[in-house]
Write a structure and sequence with these properties.
The complex is a heterodimer of chains A (about 260) and B (about 260). Helices cover about 75% and strands about 0% of the residues of chain A. Chain A is an all-alpha fold and about 260 residues long. The chains are: A mainly alpha (about 260), B mainly alpha (about 260). Chains A and B meet through helix 2 and helix 8 of A and helix 2 and helix 8 of B.
Chain lengths: ~260, ~260
């Protein structure tokens, strides 16, 4: 059983390697950072166009909606920056037997598989997403205190864990299905709902995407923290969803791992 | 049967192998449509029209856009072409009396027949949910002008993807360029918001860009968002862009071949 400090050392070594790699391929880094920036801009333009024709959407004003979209983007950029490459490659590695390399490493396979690479472009654009949230809060005349900001950061971290869990579950399908290429699309499709205000979802969609799949809670809970201060029901709901989804993801991954037959068979 | 007819037939067979990928894409499409329905439904709440269009007209626009993408959108042709170049498979085409553009266009047409069938299937499944919200005009001229607009859109989409694929002659990794252009194309092609909701001045600039004719233009004709005069003018501009992009593809191909080094026996 290796300690948390040992895991931290391993993660720092991976981070250092990723930084060196990113500085070796500076052009690639610049292109992907621009790609991420463009996609953030596309979402902002969409919101701006809709609000140029209506003052509110589901009771949310323009800048309230930008806080929601910015928060959703922030969570997704962190996921992209910290975990995307590792988990995305997991599917391919399982198919071609390269996952042996992960299993041979001194640590938990899920940790080793998902923290191998950091993507600087995603992390750079998390600054842009955070800037969008800060700018919108300023336009609304909001001045959240240190406790609110700390709680917001904690909720964003919970959101990253839920996104991470959803992605791990999606990619774990590669243990069962030989051709799971494009399965990451299911993650993006479900997480599209995280850019919707809770009040817009009614009926079955409200039950499925708020309570069963917490796509809406992930972004709405932190955004509401900035907008309305601490709301215990949202905070508790988010914490419960985080723990539940992470445990389910670990369970699914381990069940899948038991089916892995390695390259030598 | 001509050699390109054979390429089309082989393309049909090889794309049928990936029928599950198209099936999964159809499911994602349905969820994406649910997001559109919820977001725009919330925007229209209390507003009988936005930009002069009703909720039914806007939802119809998005449904048509999505179905068109299955029939005439370039999905991963750029990737396939770049792989041909990177793996050296392109060499076999250089040694035979085959025009690579025509060959790829034949395979693209075959792929769209298969994906189009799945698009129709997805539409049939979604129809009971959205039937009450669809509002398609019945003018015969819309079909008469819409069909050639769709054909030209397919040529524009394919030519742009072809040019991006050929970038592999110069760059080892082109995926960044592809995703970057996808962001621009999605926004300026009207897949994120109907372009007629943009400010008037911006719309008048965008309508002269090729992206305008990648999705918005045929959808706007078929769904009644634009009138007859605009459609005729647009068709002329679209024909120019289609011709220009086919010529550009030929120029890029010739220049790229000068960079190409065929190795191996």
């Amino acid at each position: 059983m290796i300690s948390i400090s040992r895991y931290l050392q391993i993660w720092l070594a991976s981070a250092r390697y990723s930084l060196v790699r990113a500085t070796m391929f500076r052009g690639d880094l610049a292109i992907w950072a621009t790609v991420e920036l463009f996609w953030i801009s596309v979402n902002v333009v969409m919101v701006a166009v809709i609000y140029s024709h209506t003052p509110t959407v589901a009771g949310w004003s323009l800048y309230e909606m930008l806080i929601l979209v910015g928060t959703s983007m922030l969570i997704q950029r962190f996921l992209m920056g910290f975990f995307w490459s590792g988990i995305f490659e997991m599917g391919r590695n399982v198919r071609n037997g390269m996952f042996d390399f992960i299993l041979a490493q001194p640590g938990d396979p899920l940790f080793m598989a998902s923290t191998r690479k950091l993507e600087l472009d995603g992390l750079l654009n998390s600054v842009v997403a955070a800037g969008l949230v800060a700018y919108s809060a300023r336009k609304l005349g909001l001045h959240p205190g240190a406790a609110d900001l700390a709680l917001y950061a904690f909720m964003v971290a919970c959101g990253v864990v839920i996104h991470y869990s959803a992605l791990v579950m999606a990619m774990s399908l590669s243990f069962w299905v030989t051709s799971s290429q494009g399965v990451e699309g299911s993650y993006f499709t479900v997480m599209e709902f995280s850019r919707l205000p809770r009040e817009a979802l009614k009926g079955v969609a409200g039950v499925v995407f708020v309570w069963i799949i917490p796509a809406v809670v992930v972004s709405n809970a932190p955004a509401r923290e900035i907008l309305h201060g601490f709301e215990p029901e949202w905070a508790l709901g988010l914490c419960a969803a985080t723990v539940a989804w992470f445990l389910i993801a670990v369970y699914v991954f381990r069940r899948g791992l038991m089916r892995y037959t390695s390259a030598s068979s | 049967m001509t050699k390109y007819g054979q390429a089309f037939a082989v393309g049909l067979q090889s794309n049928l192998v990936y029928r599950w990928n198209f099936g999964v894409r159809s499911v994602f499409w349905f969820f994406h449509l649910v997001v559109v329905y919820i977001l725009w439904g919330a925007a229209y709440a209390g507003n009988p029209s936005l930009g002069g269009f009703s909720f039914a007209q806007t939802l119809t626009y998005f449904v048509v856009i999505f179905v068109l993408q299955f029939f005439i959108g370039a999905f991963n042709e750029d990737y396939q072409i770049s792989e041909d170049i990177r793996n050296g498979l392109i060499n076999q085409f250089l040694l035979k009396p085959i025009n690579y553009f025509a060959y790829r266009l034949s395979v693209f047409a075959a792929a769209r027949v298969v994906s189009g069938a799945f698009g129709l299937l997805a539409l049939l499944v979604a129809l009971p949910f959205f039937r009450g919200y669809l509002d398609l005009p019945h003018d015969a001229w819309r079909i008469a002008l819409g069909v050639p607009a769709m054909a030209l859109t397919a040529i524009i989409q394919f030519s742009i993807a072809y040019c991006f694929g050929l970038l592999a002659f110069w760059f080892l990794e082109i995926q960044g360029f592809v995703v970057l252009s996808m962001a621009v194309e999605n926004l300026l092609g009207g897949q994120i918001v109907p372009l007629d909701l943009l400010p008037h001045g911006v719309f008048n600039v965008v309508r002269f860009l090729p992206f305008f004719y990648q999705a918005y233009f045929p959808a706007a004709i078929l769904t009644g968002r634009r009138g007859f005069d605009f459609a005729v003018q647009g068709l002329a501009i679209q024909a120019f862009w289609a011709f220009f992009l086919v010529c550009l593809a030929e120029v890029v191909w010739r220049r790229g071949l000068r960079h190409h080094t065929a190795a191996g026996g």
